[in-house]
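Researcher: Next entry in the queue.
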Amino acid sequence: MAETINSGVAALRTLESWHVDHIYGIPGGTVNNLMYALDAEKDRIKYIHVRHEEVGALAAVADTKLTGHIGVAFGSAGPGATHLYQGAYDAMADKIPALFIVGQNPQA
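Model: Structure for this entry, 108 residues:
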């Protein structure tokens, strides 16, 4: 029988298959599922808490530049997502891969 896992764990295992061993971000209500998954998978992927989403985004881009592996950062919906733009712009300008995960509020 196939193992049943939640979407957060599935996302982290996909990242792990891409050789991601850490992820930057800030907890928030819209990324709770990801936070629970990071706790459950802490032996596989390290969570690095940053003070601001922009710092996480720029750190993820710097990771990619230094290691060649995709850098990953996340932020909550709304302002958290907006603060990821600086890192996204840096990645676009330098034509390097980076992944930014944004939470979303439930839709009616």
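Model: The chain has five helices and four strands.
Researcher: Noted, moving on.
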